Please model this.
Amino acid sequence: MQYRKLGNSGAVISAQTLGTMTFGAEADEATSFALMDDYVAAGGNFLDTADVYSAGKSEEIVGRWLKARPEAAREVLVTTKARFPMGKGPNDLGLSRRHLGVALDDSLRRLGVEQIDLYQMHAFDALTPLEETLRFLDDAIRNGKIAYYGFSNFIGWQITKAVFLARMGNLAPPVTLQPHYNLLVRDIEHEIVPACADAGIGLLPWSPLGGGWLTGKYRRDQMPTGATRLGENPNRGQESYGPRNAQERTWRIIGTLEAAAKELGVSMAQVALAWVADRPTVTSVILGARTREQLADNLGAADLVLPDEIRTRLTEASAPEVADYPYGKGGVDQRHRKVEGGR
Model:
């Protein structure tokens, strides 16, 4: 297992994170405990949960595991998130000081810890001034309730504004962003990744296997069945992966990925995970395994180094399909210039 800095903080985490969204839902408590045991045995030290996962059950399961494994609890870092509804009232969601104060205390109680290592804002809140959220997070750090904070699903201007406000207000800065990112979903590279790179913010990609599409479980001539993070709609997993010719792009990527996996003698999932882990500004990739077998296969990507030729092939095959301006070649050429100048 490789280890990297947690964004621009001094903490160190494994390059693979164990996501716990399935805990209390697809994975019962015994299976969840086994997944965490296997993950830690492989060298992992970062658990990702959220208050909204199974309406708090995921945090409770993680908390009971931490209590039952005191030695592991001293080494493992935990991140949780708040933003989405945890009740029916108008203040039971959002990033207001009111809601976050209740949500943070509830997460601390469910996890059974005195401090949360990384507290993430699960999504932007257009109704709450960003200054209010940042001051709450700074207070939480000063009060010892959280060590660091980050964002999830924020876009470029929101990240840059938050960094600017934190600097101007002498507040603690964000250290991470948790975005949707994989071979199929690369649009964050236009604005979000540069914004994070500029601020030294590390990425914690969620759904690195595209809801199962990058594992080879779906075939062009077969209708998808069963629940995935992208839902039951067989077209949804394809139409959301590019503005034009989305389905053909999806199958082109899957075909390239399958060929690479055969060349290397590993699973498609391992190649897809290794590609994401190697991308600029990525700190740790979130694994969303439901079973021990899935986790074992995913962990096989921890030390997989893709040959340059295969990495290039995958990157080219999965290039986002965009118009020439502002994110295509025309726009990119406008924003760059040669050191030596000239036409």
Summary: The first strand starts at residue 3 and ends at 5.
